[in-house]
Amino acid sequence: MQERSVYEMYEKLGIEKDVYEYASDILKGLKERFEEIDEIARYNQLKVLAAMQKNRVSEADLKGSSGYGYDDLGRDRLEKVYADTFGCEDALVRPQITCGTHAITLALFSNLRPDDELLYITGKPYDTLESVIGIRKASGSFAEYGITYAQADLTDDGHIDEDAVRKKINERTKIAAIQRSKGYDTRRSIPVKDIEKAVRLIKSINKDILIFVDNCYGEFVERYEPVEAGADMMAGSLIKNPGGGLAAVGGYIAGRKECVENAANRLTSPGLGKEVGASLSLLPSFYQGFFLAPHVTASALKGAVFAAHLYDRLGFEVSPGISDERTDIIQAVTLRSKEALISFCKGIQSSSAVDSFVSPDPSPMPGYEHEVVMAAGDFISGSSIELSADAPLKSPYTVFFQGGLTSSHAEAGIIKTLQQLVNDKIIDRSALK
Ligand SMILES: *Cc1c(COP(=O)(O)O)cnc(C)c1O
Q1: CB-based burial of residue 389 (10 Å sphere; 0-12 exposed, 13-18 middle, 19+ buried)?
Q2: Which of 128, 157, 175, 216 could form a disulfide with 367 if both were Cys (CB 3.0 to 4.6 A apart)?
Q3: Taking the chain (433 residues) in consecutive chunks of 10 residues, what is each chunk's mean pLDDT?
Q4: Which CATH number fits domain 6-43+291-432: 3.40.50.1370, 3.40.630.30, 1.20.58.100, 3.90.1150.60?
Q5: Which fold does the domain 66-279 belong to in CATH?
């Protein structure tokens, strides 16, 4: 049989030769960068493996439970595995935590009391949290319970503003919150070493202030996690990095024992705490997904780095920039027009394994202020560790690209976006010379 080239397969996916060659040239230059990403994945793989072995995970732990979920040893052990991997005293890892917003809400609400103040030190929080906090009016918000909110914005160059933090802390400040990933914003994401510095500052002002980190999209991108850097608790979604693409639902909260206990009492009921909550038949996917997560995260990260280099060379603004350090899997590309944004999302959608034939259209989303375009043909609905792109429909039309369960798929998705932009005459073919 004659040797077949990768390009022959790309041709079947509708990729033209000049697009492929332009992209391949960029990929060639990324070998060293990808090796660094693999090195972190190796480290984190062993971190997970060590936690599983230390806790003597056994076949019986995969069975699951029904009803109340009493004596669900597999569920309890998974929580120990999360806690040990993330350097925490305890963790709550549950399918009853419906999404990232819910995990964050639980962590915050359960550790705040009326008359306390929540201080975000990384500027405006993720869109969905505006209703939670009461920045946007919503029934059941923190504001309705007499929990006030303060915010210290980042400096112009995207760092935590220590002076602003000092000024905003008062005797009612109970939690200082850090959002590690940029969310739908073009700001810089906050690396773990910056979190470490902020923890030191805040604890020197008042050691009783709890430090919370919204860790969505950050897990396994670096060698250590926010609680290892001194934060008291963190939270995230299982349909992002730590679920490894296999967990079909769920969220986690990990950190100091009292913080996790408070969260458990709020998720279930005071007094019941972690004792109830059936894991149904989900534990095999939770364990296996967590086991695979370091490498799945690395695949997504390679896709993000590739996208940054490709679109940077084409003259678009990208965040993080091509030589910036990374602490999450999100890549923002500012496409400057609504047409380009929709074209990019079409490229991602059409390279999905599931629903490759559907067209992503802008639509209103609960919890978001603007219409949102979402491109994803997911095995698990809305899973953004899978190849996906989202963008709120607002100027300057920045798309947020993330995910890819394998690096080959992430790569194919990015190449397809370029093809789509060329097809739609947004990028001129002469730019590929
Ligand atoms: C995704 C995300 C959230 C919210 O998670 P959902 O699962 O979409 O509710 C919160 N913060 C950040 C930084 C995120 O990326």
Answers
A1: buried
A2: 128
A3: 90 97 98 98 98 98 97 98 98 98 98 98 95 96 98 97 98 98 89 98 98 98 98 98 98 98 98 98 98 98 98 97 96 96 96 95 82 92 95 93 97 98 97 91
A4: 3.90.1150.60
A5: Aspartate Aminotransferase; domain 2 (3.40.640)
